[in-house]
Design a protein that fits this description.
Layout (H helix, E strand, L loop, with lengths): L3 H8 L15 H6 L6 H6 L13 H26 L84 H12 L4 H8 L7 H15 E2 L2 E2 L8 H12 L6 H13 L7 H16 L4 H15 L4 H12 L7 H15 L6 H14 L5 H13 L6 H14 L5 H14 L4 H14 L5 H13 L5 H14 L5 H13 L7 H15 L5 H13 L5 H7 L2 H10 L5 H17 L30 H15 L6 E5 L5 E8 L5 E2 L9 E8 L13 H12 L3 E6 H4 L5 H12 L9
Parallel strand pairs: 6-7
Antiparallel strand pairs: 1-2, 3-4, 4-5, 4-6
Length: 731
């Protein structure tokens, strides 16, 4: 076997084996011998750590020196092309230090603008880590370049070197353990157990701490930033910002904004500065550009000049070559604030057209993110994309996470779109998730069906059953929003008794917790399905509650006054035993028919005209019936017919000797749920109240009238409906 030191002496000049640090005088020989090295030393040489000055006595020092240099030459041959482009190794700033100044070996293998071993060969003093003032100790000048540990080895070594990144398996294992952490304390404990960490892993850890600690616009426990482990991690990111990967750099910057670090802290300033340099060089991928954009929005808002430069870079990319991840990332960036005020609308239009072509390949997160962006950006002209995304959502209904399903349903409500295939998918899925999903998700489901006037018995029955068991954990808003669709669609589930007993119990226990308008909406929904909250009406008509109702918004709008009026009318008509306070006249309305949201539905114009022609033929003249009559009881009649005591029809203008009034309700399709022939709650209570007020109510539903083919059939039909017991004479 050849002696190691003897072999080395044959290929390196003798002065390499003198004691003392390596200087610039040694660099020419080092470059000249950067060729292939045999495998003997690669397999058998043991790594010896460099110290501040490598001074070992005699032959042992020579042997160690030779082995270390050969190993570094081998690494340089393998990685030099990555770190220094061909022909530029001699021009790098790292090799242009003054002659005779000690040179850090680690600097030969990196592209940093300065020595990365602050406590190594140059014995530089520990730098001030901005406002974080993190105290660190660097170890192992080459193999742990970028490593950091606190005193007493209380935190993990943090490796930023691209030569020795953790394996994919190690990163995945770290990610899985990080996701399982349920508190920032567990995250920090995990960090102390990790010996090797990449910059992306470090950034991911910071994001996880932010997930645990974010509370609105601040941290639940700001002292978490003073933890030694986190301070050391941030300090290392600050010191080695120039050596971070693009992905690690922008992710770390975004994590800093999520942790609400001072924008003028040294860490944030250095990360922003380095990001600007990378952006100028055009080194970032689309996904990285979007991550950087999110961070810049958090730091400076949409007016940031660097953000405009970033968007110019985004628009230069070929849209047809974007991946789905990149497409959704750009949507997210525009949604976050870059696209506010109609900015970049041309880019959005192009994205919409491209997104339609790739919708079939979108996974559940992508579908929900794009729909959410369309809502925030109010892209009402993008209905083809909304419809396409809705069709894709049908496939993903069983696979949506709670938050994703909520975003999808919220977007469909915003754009006013529904799909019967989606309804069928929800009917299969909701009974399985009603007892286990997040309360807000279940609430969103009910809001969607209520807003779109879709009565699905499987969905409503499942939610009603879960409500009985889970309502105690719901917020007052969630309680109201789950009950309101039952009232709006006029549907009582099989366990209606249990449901409304639960509602009553919640009102007794948490009455003062309800916001005034939320409480009014809940009580009004109850009366639509003939559930009368007599025990709470007196509190609603109380002066103090009405004052709160006024203070909650800018005055009391007409819909609130209409709800109060109808609630009071219901109590007077259907609860004659009520003896509580009355609703003051100033809070009452004269008509329930108001523009926009109304307690009545306008009559369908086309259907009304057909019925009017038939009534003229039936009664003999237009003067014998009145249209759109406002009653003293706030309701508007589609058609009113007056009869005397003998049953003869009186002229509509007559006001005396009226024995009976007939209210003809011409019910178009908008007065019913969209998928059944169930009258909406507001139409059902109107007809119920009219009967209690003495009117004879005649209902003419659209689905019966549409079956009539000619005038004769129309007249015969109207006669049977309005005068079922009389014989019709021919005029």
């Amino acid at each position: 076997m050849v002696h190691a030191s003897g072999f080395v002496k044959q290929i390196f000049p003798p002065y390499w084996f003198t004691t003392g640090p390596i200087t610039n005088e040694h660099l020419p020989s080092l470059r000249n011998h950067a060729g292939p090295v045999g495998g003997f030393f690669k397999k058998n040489c043991q790594c010896v750590l460099f110290h501040e000055r490598l001074e070992l006595p005699g032959e042992s020092w020579n042997r160690a020196m030779a082995l270390k240099v050969i190993q570094r030459l081998q690494l340089l041959r393998q990685t030099g092309a990555h770190l220094c482009p061909p022909g530029e190794l001699s021009r790098t700033r790292l090799l242009s230090v003054p002659v005779g100044e000690p040179l850090c070996v680690a600097c030969l293998w990196t592209s940093a603008d300065r020595c990365i071993q602050r406590q190594g060969c140059r014995k530089l003093s520990q730098p001030d880590c901005g406002r974080m003032t993190l105290s660190t100790i660097a170890k192992d000048p080459f193999y742990t370049t970028g490593s950091v540990s606190l005193h007493k080895d209380s935190v993990p070594r943090f490796r930023l070197s691209q030569l020795h990144r953790p394996t994919d398996a190690e990163e995945k294992a770290f990610h899985d353990r990080l996701v399982s952490c349920s508190s920032s304390r567990q995250v920090l404990r995990l960090l102390r157990t990790v010996e090797i960490m990449s910059d992306t892993m470090a950034a991911e850890a910071l994001h996880r701490v932010a997930d645990m600690e974010q509370d609105g616009t601040s941290l639940k426990d700001p002292k978490v930033l003073e933890k030694d482990t986190l301070r050391a991690l941030c300090c290392q990111l600050e010191q080695d910002s120039g050596r971070l990967t693009e992905a690690g750099l922008v992710s770390a910057l975004l994590a800093c904004t999520r942790l609400y670090l001072d924008p003028w802290s040294m860490l944030v300033v250095r990360l922003v500065s380095e990001s600007q340099e990378r952006l100028d060089r055009g080194q970032m991928s689309m996904d990285q550009l979007c991550t950087l954009g999110q961070a810049l929005l958090a730091l400076e808002g949409p007016g940031c000049g660097m953000l405009e430069q970033l968007m110019e870079e985004v628009q230069r990319q070929e849209l047809g070559q974007w991946s789905l991840v990149e497409l959704t990332a750009v949507y997210g960036l525009l949604q976050a604030g870059v696209g506010e005020g109609g900015r970049y609308q041309d880019l959005l239009n192009a994205m919409h057209a491209y997104a339609v072509s790739v919708t079939s390949r979108m996974d559940p997160p992508a579908v929900s993110r794009v729909l959410s962006a369309l809502v925030v950006l109010n892209q009402t002209q993008a209905m083809p994309l909304v419809i396409s995304l809705c069709k894709q959502a049908v496939r993903h209904v069983p696979h949506f996470r709670d938050e994703e399903l909520g975003l999808v349903l919220g977007a469909l409500m915003h754009f006013g779109h529904s799909d019967h295939f989606l309804v069928e998918a929800m009917e299969r899925h909701v009974p399985k998730m009603a007892f286990t999903s997040h309360p807000e998700t279940v609430t969103k489901v009910m809001q969607y069906f209520g807003r779109r006037n879709i009565l699905s018995q499987p969905v409503f029955d499942a939610v009603a059953e879960s409500f009985v068991y889970r309502a105690d954990e719901y917020s007052t808003s969630q309680v109201a929003r789950q009950i309101m669709p039952f009232g709006k669609l006029g549907y009582l589930p099989p366990n209606a008794g249990e449901v409304f007993r639960k509602v009553e119990a919640i009102l007794h226990a948490r009455f003062s917790h309800f916001q005034p308008r939320t409480l009014l909406n809940l009580l009004h929904s109850c009366i639509l399905v003939e559930r009368f909250p007599v025990n709470f009406v007196s509190k609603v008509f109380n002066r103090y509650f009405l004052q709160q109702l006024q203070e909650q918004g800018s005055g009391v709008d007409r819909i609130v006054l209409a709800q109060l009026t109808q609630l009071y009318m219901t109590v007077k008509l259907e609860c004659p035993f009520y003896e509580g306070p009355r609703l003051l006249p100033k809070y009452r309305v004269k008509s329930f028919l108001t523009p926009g949201r109304s307690l009545e539905t306008l009559v369908d114009g086309h259907l009304y005209n057909y019925v009017k022609i038939g009534l003229v033929d039936l009664l003999g003249a237009r003067a014998y019936f009145a249209s759109r009559v406002l009653t003293p009881y706030c309701y508007t009649l589609d058609v009113e017919i007056k009869l005397d005591e003998e049953g003869y029809v009186l002229p509509a203008s007559q006001i005396d000797d009226i024995y009976k009034r007939i209210a003809v309700c011409i019910d178009g399709d908008k007065r019913f749920t969209v998928n059944t022939r169930q009258l909406l709650g507001k139409e059902a209570i109107k007809q119920r109240h009219l009967r209690l007020l003495g009117y004879e109510v005649v209902q003419i539903p659209y689905y019966e009238f549409e079956k009539l083919w000619n005038k004769t059939e129309v007249v015969e039909y109207l006669h049977k409906k309005i005068f079922p017991l009389s014989y019709r004479l021919s005029w």
